Amino acid sequence: MSTNASHHALLPQELIRLKRDGQPLPAEEIKAFVQGIADDRISDAQIGAFTMAVFLNGMSREEVVALTTATRDSGHVMRWDALNLHGPIVDKHSTGGVGDLVSLVLGPWVAACGAFVPMISGRGLGHTGGTLDKLESIPGYAPYPAPERFSEVVKSTGVAIIGQTGNLAPADKRIYGVRDVTATVESIPLITASILGKKLASGLDALVMDVKVGSGAFMPTPEKSRELAKSIANVATQAGTPTTALLTDMSQPLAPCAGNAVEIVETLTLLRGERSNSRVMQVTRELAVEMLIAGKLAANREDALAQLEKALTSGAAAEVFARMVRELGGPADFMERSNNYLATAPVIQAVYPEQSGIVQRFDTRAVGMSVVELGGGRLRNDASIDHSVGFSDIVAIGDHVDSQRPLAIVHARSEEAAARAAAQLRAAITLGAETADADTLLQETFRGEA
């Protein structure tokens, strides 16, 4: 911002008043306000008043684009030109869910097809598992490398999945902290700017977004999920990063497991090509197709699918995952000997239903919360995690269960914890006599319009 412009920036309270009264905000005023948040010139009270005004009055697309780019530019924006990468820089973001290990398979798989994936992931909070927590089940895996090291690993391996470092989108950290305690979390303009401000700071050529619908979704209703998917695709594309958003079903756990080490075990199985048509692989494959097309690595869907198939069956995708783990401090032979490295829970038991029947419905959020209670997630940012606990072999909607066929296997720290989790799981799954079909897995695709 030129010194000249800063003299004329509105006072923060004037900007808040405009939004309070439903007036349009000029892009440069939004920029100045967000910069003031990053520089600590704007108080938490002012951020809270601003987010509440946005929550109540909404924002135009132009305003959301301005808020997003200002958030992106409030800190360090990664530049990859100096590395002379011979491929596009692409990434994906998901609104989170239960048994959603997509990133762990997708990053290496797309990298094996020639893309570069600098994936900055979060920890689990609430009922959704965090990609970082899953990776930290691997002894030695260091998710906070120095920036130079991050770039090196992306260049040499094609993918690096790491944690959010200090200086990416610092304005978002403050805004998010205030939204959390001022009942302004569920605002589509604010969610869009928060997600994209962080993601676009990675200097991407293209982005795919996985927005969940159903009982484990972040958004309360399917309409809100659609609105968010559309908002993200259009705002990111207008901000200069072509983006496609997929609406996918989260009305049951995506993978047949939920936890940390148990999801790493499943990830390895999938990367070895051993369950190529599972639900989690269908979602991952769709996102991968969009990434390859957006990154101009594939001419069309057929071409993308053929490349992905080859990367899986040749073992290339698994090799990329193994190399990423090694480069970020994990064991060199992790792929071959994962059993030697992953923690196993002291108590592992089958959870049988109280009566036989067909699985009709899941309260997916309750399954996620049960994993948190087992010690596999956190309710506070600073809580530590037990990587060994969770559920594996979880049934799916439409499956028949009885005294021979359990609902899942629980992995717990103690007999008491296992019994409690078993009761919670039974309560979270509705059984019935009639056949049942899951909701459509891949519901809609929104390609951003600039």
Main sheet makeup: 4 strands, mixed
Known CATH architecture of the largest domain: 3-Layer(aba) Sandwich
Quickly count the helices. Answer: 18
E-strand count: 13
Which whole number gives the mean pLDDT?
Answer: 94
| Uncertain residue segments | 1-6
> Termini separation (Å)?
24 Å
Give the CATH superfamily of the largest domain. Answer: Nucleoside phosphorylase/phosphoribosyltransferase catalytic domain
**Could you tell me the strand content as a percent range?**
5-15%
Bin the helical content. 40-55%
Keywords:
4-stranded antiparallel β-sheet; Aldehyde Oxidoreductase, domain 3; globular; single chain; 18 helices; alpha/beta; 450 residues; Transferase, Pyrimidine Nucleoside Phosphorylase, Chain A, domain 3; Pyrimidine Nucleoside Phosphorylase, Chain A, domain 2; 3 domains
Outline the secondary-structure elements.
Elements: H1 3-8, H2 12-20, H3 27-38, H4 44-57, H5 61-72, E1 90-94, H6 102-111, E2 117-121, H7 131-135, H8 147-157, E3 159-163, H9 170-181, H10 188-200, E4 206-213, H11 222-238, E5 243-249, E6 258-259, H12 261-271, H13 279-294, H14 301-313, H15 316-327, H16 338-341, E7 347-351, E8 357-362, H17 364-376, E9 390-392, E10 400-401, E11 408-412, H18 415-428, E12 429-432, E13 442-447
Parallel strand pairs: 1-4, 2-3, 4-5
Antiparallel strand pairs: 5-13, 6-9, 7-11, 8-10, 8-12, 9-11
Helix pairs in contact: 2-4, 3-5, 3-9, 4-9, 5-10, 5-11, 6-12, 6-13, 6-15, 10-11, 13-14, 17-18
